Amino acid sequence: MAEERASVATLVLTLSYDGAPFAGFARQEGHDTVQGRLESALGTVMRREVESTGAGRTDAGVHALAQVVSVPLFAGEEPDLPVLLRSLNALVGGGIVVTGAHIARPGFSARFDAQAREYRYRLVPGPVPPLFLRDVAWWMKHGLDVEAMRTAAEALVGEHDFRSFCVAESAEGKRTVRRIEAIDITSAEEFGEHCVVVRVVGNAFLHSMVRVIVGSLVEVGRGRRSPEWLGETLAACDRAAAGPTAPAHGLVLWHVSYAEECWL
Q1: Virtual CA dihedral for 226, 228, 232, 233, nearest 10 degrees?
Q2: Candidates 3.40.50.720, 3.60.10.10, 3.30.70.580, 3.30.70.1660; correct CATH number of 2-113?
Q3: Which residues carry out catalysis?
Q4: I need a surface site. Which of 101, 174, 204, 254 has the fewest CB within 10 A?
């Protein structure tokens, strides 16, 4: 069997996808998923059953600009990367684009070798709904106090227990300490439409962690909570203390970072 052979290298793919039609990234029996589609396409090209590892398990509806996936390669499987890219894009189906292919050392894991992951969330505040951003941004009819949101976000930077900011059931019996390197909140204009972009960079994230952080920041931006409340929520280590989970369609897995020595 393929899994009993020693890997000689690792195929590393970068994917972009529209999360709307998928039941998330991770394969699920009986559901259309990004990983399921990719593994089916890889199986056709490589003529064997393929199991891949993703850098992040994005939820249903969450998009990706640069999801990273690793697949072990065995002797005789060294691919022609440009040909592989064309073949996968012809097979993987709508909503997914394979944007890059690299070769890494044997044993490389897109998940465990990742040094940092960057997510971005778009908000569109104001009475006019977005047109071009409607499928990738959370529209709210009210305005947002961006300065108050920035002040609140400072409490989350660093290494903390983020149990308050994840799906409660997913945290039972598990370590919930993570490190956030940066949270930047900026105004932007995309396709002529105003939006607020929340950029979150960290070493790893809990289930729905970024979406709960954004939902909580919106509570501050709307004036429902003070900026100090976010620090109190963090200390509570209780999901019930935080704000709502922001809708999935506003979130994008933007970038995953690795050490240069990973690549061959």
Answers
A1: 50
A2: 3.30.70.580
A3: 59
A4: 174
